[in-house]
Every structure is written in C-alpha cells, then in structure tokens.
Design the sequence.
C-alpha cells in the first residue's frame, strides 16, 4: 500500500474534528465495519464523529455499532468504501467530501483527499493502516469492526483478493481481541429460514446441460414468494449453480418482473462468464458477470443455452 | 508452540533416512497435506521418503501428491495427524513408530519421539515449523500442501481453533506461492451433484420445533439413495440444521440400518449439544456431539425432542 495515502488520510483525520463518515447504500460488512472501526478510533482521540448510512445499519451487524450516537452539523464528510456517487443516498450526492477511503478499482468520488488502494482486499485493510498510523491502540471493538469488513470482502479469506497482508492484519486483529469465530458464524454460516427454503427450491430446480458442464436455474417470483424470501435472502444464491463439480458455467436467472430476468453468470476452469454476458449487452468480471433479458422463459432459456454452448465448445 | 518438540522432530528427521510417513484412515486435508508437505521437504534434502495411506489418497487432493513414488523397506515410520492406533490400518497398528507428529488434544500413539501440540489448529502448522527449522525453503508444492491442511482443519479460518499464528503461517504460505483461492474453491465451494441433491432433500425435510429454536432432519437411507449420495457426500451435512438463525439446537439423524440412527447434534448460543447426547449415552464437544439410537422413527423423534426441550428450557 502506498504509505503516502495513509499519511495524508491520517494527517487529515488527526488535524480535523466534527467528521461525518458515510457508508454506501445496501451497506455490507466492509462499509459498516470500516466506518465504525474508524469511528471508535477517532472517538478514542476525543473527536466528534458519527456514521451516516442512507439505508440504515443491517441488524446482522448489530454487534458493530453503538445504540445512540449524537449527530451534529459536521465540518467534514468522509466516504468509506463508496466507489461512486451512485452508491450514495440522493441527499448525499451533492455533499462536498473532504476524504474518500476506498479499495475499489474504479473510484469516481470527488474528494479533497483520496485514500484509495485497489490492492487492498477490503477498505478495512486501509482503515487498519490509518488507525495504526494515528497511534490508536486497536481495541476489541475496533478489531471486531475491521475483522468483519475483511472477512466480508474476502469471503473469509477464500477469494483471490486475499493477500499475505490480509492474513497478517487478521492475525493482529485476533490478537487485539476480534471474536473471529462468532463473527464468521454470523457472516457465513447463519442463514434465515427463508434463505434456507430458497436454497432448497434453487437446488431442486437446478438443471444441467451439455454433459453437466452447465448448470442453470430460474428463480421465479413465485419461488421467492413460496420461500418468503427478500432481496437480502437472494444475496449469494448465484454461486450455487457454479458450485457443482465439473460445471464450467453456472447460470442463475432471476425473474424481476413478468418476463424480465436478471441473469447472473459464474464460470470456472477458464470458461468466461463475461463473454456470455457481453453477448447480451451485460458486463462484469471474467468469472462473475451479469445481464438483463426479456422474453418468455423457455425462449430466454434457449437463447442463453445457445450462447453458453458456444462458450463451452470454443 | 514448545520450540523443543520442533527441535526434537527436526533433529530426528535431519539425522535419519528411509522414512515412511503414515496418514490416518479416512484421510483428510491435514493428514494428506501434512504428510506430502513433509515428503517434499525431506526430498529436497535428498532423503528417501514415501507416504503411506491405508485408505489411499482421495481424488480431491490429487493436486497434492506426485504420480508415482517408489516404496522401499523403511528404517523409520512416522505418523502424521494420527491421534490413535484406531485410525491406522490393521497392518499398521503394530509397527514401531520413531516419530509422531500431531495436534489432537488426546494423542495415544506410542512413538520414540512425540511432537504433539494441541494448541496448533492443524498438524500442518507444526509441520510448517519443522520444515522451517530444517532450513528448507518453502516451495510452491510444500506451500499448497500445508495451506490445504490448515484450511481444512480451520474450516477456512472460521473455527475457534484459528489463532493469530494460523494467519501468520497462511500469510507465509501464500507468499511462498500457495494457490489459496483455487484450493479453497475445491475444499469449500465445489460439491458433487449427489451432494447438492442431498442438500436439497435435507433442506426440504428440515422441521422446526419449539418456536424455531430446534431444527431437526431425518436423513433416511431412501434419501441417500434418491440423491445417489455416499459417505463422503454426507460429510458436513450435520451443520445445516444449526445454520438457521435463531436455532439453538440442530439435530441430524441419519438412518444407518433399519430403525437405527446415528444422531449428530449441533448447538449454538450457550445451549449444550453435549448434554443432549450424554443423556442418550453419546459424547463429543459442547457444541458438536453425537449418539446412536434405535427404534421406530416417530418414537425416536419424540424421545429426542423431549430431551432437547429440557435443554432449551433450562
């Protein structure tokens, strides 16, 4: 990590007060953990600080944030893990930002000071460096916050963004008292009844094509209703189709409106999800991409399968 | 880790040759990864060494072991991750062991030198220290082996046995070239079609009791047949029942013979799986225990639920 961006961010935070930290919409563990990790660190320095989240704070991160924090008219706004103004609430888009802390490859936030490092697996890795640079002792609370962000964004050290540095920071955070085991249970094992019901339906409806090299499932509005599942319950469902051994391309088509589908494609072993999605006007990464498509379910299925076949054969 | 046991094991290995490393039966990633990690390290020192596994080497660890290794009449036998002679093949039980490397809390192997550290999350952590002590550079092969063992035994850094030291070693292994992302995909994401089908049936048959504080599923022989699932596919299924948010006790009863059930109990939030299992003559750990029970399914179900109710109420 470029030490100079850590210097700049730390100096700004050390020299200023009355700071509002802003999370992105649909807040995840990295934005919430990062913002509150920094919140507790700045509090320990006697600063006035609070965290703002347009979409509130999810109940699953209840262990990270305090009950009541007094808000005030801030002198400075700082974004945490926000790649783009599109990820801010409407009332936040036109604020003037003093600091932007983020790890996304493309960050388009306009801020006086930018502390962006796309080599970091999580924004919480960057905030760990800032907190250390500020000379703040990592408390148990801070450790829980930062560990949560790192575990969230690396899928518990499974994804390719995990570096030796990620593990070294995790070691420090556990030493500082992060309850890693409990956090991981909450983040990765515990599921709602509705989610389990949805998984059951998805697994039941999984279809295989091309000698089991493609797995495909259509998640209809009726299935979501049957499971009683909501948006949060659907999160991560797209990884199921690819998880079957031998599958090169996994397709999860979710019915968003009648005859309108949001399709998530995941690939494996050199096959390109991105190629498939580009054909339909979508985008993403090589192994995880998506697109939208309209039409009768059977027709949509055939169109997708035809394109998948070409990707698998070539 | 007591440095002296590492000293002793390293000195023994440095001073001797013609060594046979022995894995435990039903080999997992820690015994296979540990044995081959040490195998490659000793090979690099010019030693004659081979690995023996009574149950062979699972295909899922194909990336860890070489195609053909010449066997010979060894001067020494060393066990890797074997807690007890019960975990050896019949022809291996009466061998005289020179060295025993293990991390299980109760290790009853009789060996000239014992290198046992129950504070290590995996035997591969101990072998990492030995390999370093031997002055061997951690090659990519060794790194893949040792990372596999550590990821296996910590559930990818999720379980409570994960220490700061575990993460520090993981950092070193990734630096040395361990393909952590690929390994984790194989170990934790990829599943057989039969396993996915079995999960689908388990989720479909999950029943809730006592205001959703108990989840219970009976996995019948018929369900196993329907899924085409085998022993390996069943591994880890017992964690599904506990995974539902709010569930204190998760019960998975597997029909092993007609009217005979092997019951796995998992608990959460202070409830004791062990208490439930002890009542039926079983044992285990507080949050993961088991017992065997015979009888008509409905009668067995009622007996278990009665005991679970008492555990939840108190």
Sequence:
């Amino acid at each position: 990590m470029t030490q100079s961006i850590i210097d700049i961010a730390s100096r700004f935070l050390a020299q200023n007060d009355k700071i509002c930290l802003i999370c992105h919409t649909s807040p995840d563990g990295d934005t919430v953990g990062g913002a509150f990790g920094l919140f507790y660190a700045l509090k320990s320095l006697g600063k006035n600080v609070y965290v703002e989240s347009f979409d509130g704070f999810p109940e699953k991160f209840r262990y990270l944030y305090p009950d009541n924090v007094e808000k005030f008219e801030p002198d400075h706004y700082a974004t945490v893990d926000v790649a783009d103004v599109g990820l801010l609430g409407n009332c936040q888009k036109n604020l003037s930002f003093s600091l932007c802390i983020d790890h996304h490859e493309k960050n388009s936030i306009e801020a006086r000071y930018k502390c962006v490092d796309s080599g970091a697996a999580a924004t919480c890795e960057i905030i760990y460096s800032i907190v250390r640079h500020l000379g703040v002792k990592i408390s148990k609370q801070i450790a829980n916050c930062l560990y949560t962000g790192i575990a969230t964004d690396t899928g518990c050290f499974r994804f390719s963004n995990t570096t030796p540095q990620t593990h070294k920071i995790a070691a420090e955070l556990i030493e500082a008292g992060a309850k890693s085991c409990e956090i991981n249970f909450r983040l990765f094992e515990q599921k709602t009844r509705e989610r389990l019901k949805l998984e059951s339906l998805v697994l039941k409806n999984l279809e295989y094509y091309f000698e089991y090299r493609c797995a495909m499932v259509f998640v209809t509005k009726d299935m979501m209703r049957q499971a009683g599942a909501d948006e949060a319950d659907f999160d991560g469902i797209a990884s199921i189709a690819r998880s079957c051994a031998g599958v090169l391309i996994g397709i999860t088509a979710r019915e968003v409106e009648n005859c309108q589908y949001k399709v998530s494609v995941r690939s494996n072993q050199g096959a390109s999800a991105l190629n498939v999605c580009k054909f339909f006007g979508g985008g993403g990464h090589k192994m995880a991409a998506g697109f939208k498509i309209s039409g009768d379910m059977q027709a949509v299925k055939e169109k997708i399968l035809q394109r998948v076949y070409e990707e698998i054969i070539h």
User: Anything to note?
Assistant: The interface with chain B takes residues 156-160, 162-168, 170-172, 174-175, 180-181, 184-185, 188-193, 196-197, 199-200, 203-204, 206, 208, 212, 239-240, 242-246, 268 of chain A (CB under 8 Å).
